[in-house]
Amino acid sequence: MFTGPAEIYDRFVGRYSPRLARAMCDAAGVRPGQRALDVGCGSGALVAALAGVLGAENVTGLDPSEPFAEAARARVPNARIQVGSAESIPFADEEFDTTLSQLVVNFLTDPEQGLREMSRVTRPGGVVAGSVWDYGGEMTLLRTFWDAAVAVDPQGATPVMESHTMRFARPEELEELWRSSALEDVDVSPLVVEASYDDFDDLWAPFPTGVGPAGAYTASLEAEAQALLRDEYARRLGEPEGAFTLSARAWCAVGRVGD
Ligand SMILES: C[S@@+](CC[C@H](N)C(=O)[O-])C[C@H]1O[C@@H](n2cnc3c(N)ncnc32)[C@H](O)[C@@H]1O
Predict the structure, then answer these.
(1) Atom of ligand 1 nearest to the CA of 40
(2) Taking the complete model, does pTM exceed 0.70, yes or no?
(3) I need a labelling partner for 194 at 20 to 30 A (CA). Which of 45, 66, 135, 243 fits?
(4) Which helix (DSSP H) or strand (DSSP E) does residue 34 occupy?
């Protein structure tokens, strides 16, 4: 799902990432003088936001996808970017003041282990923060996509729609994950961001390439079924003519490593 070119991801959900990254830095209380780790850094939107506050030399990114890691290196050349996974973070205990993961924990094979690892590499008193889209609610791009897919293909789309398959998309569930790794002062809050599109084609273009779960579903359809889905999706977004903007809500959990 995330092994294709990073440019396609950046036109898809990654379009929201730079703004979400700035909101996550605020929510986590990132401030100059800290060393930060971004777990599941993808193409580097959060690495860039962290570098803007901390300086690139104080920012590390980690992602299992080599093309994404390469894109993050190109985006923030002086940051340290490594290939690796959240469940086995290749860094020392207490190496960072803060560890963030943006739109990642719902993709982990073992999220509880991922959180234990993020806590391990963060110093006592440091912050561990992570966000997940509100898939079943106000993440308009994906929510409307799956509503359209279920309308035209109820049997095929319902079992794979992200509001069914993604864990931690509800605030209580995300909070429970943070508490499960003994993080203290846990707080979950909504982060709402926007992205702009030139027209509906600009929004639709990444879907048939197979990026992310919604793209994988679209790519699995025959051309005729894709065209039906595209029309229903456009209809549900109000048949936009020309440029438009969509908003997206993510839930963000913030917790502190105990002393
Ligand atoms: C939705 S993307 C988010 C990328 C980036 N954080 C952003 O906000 O644009 C999910 C990312 O999680 C990464 N990922 C998947 N499994 C992972 C794992 N086990 N450990 C760390 N990252 C993982 C993917 O490679 C991908 O870059």
Answers:
(1) 22
(2) yes
(3) 66
(4) none
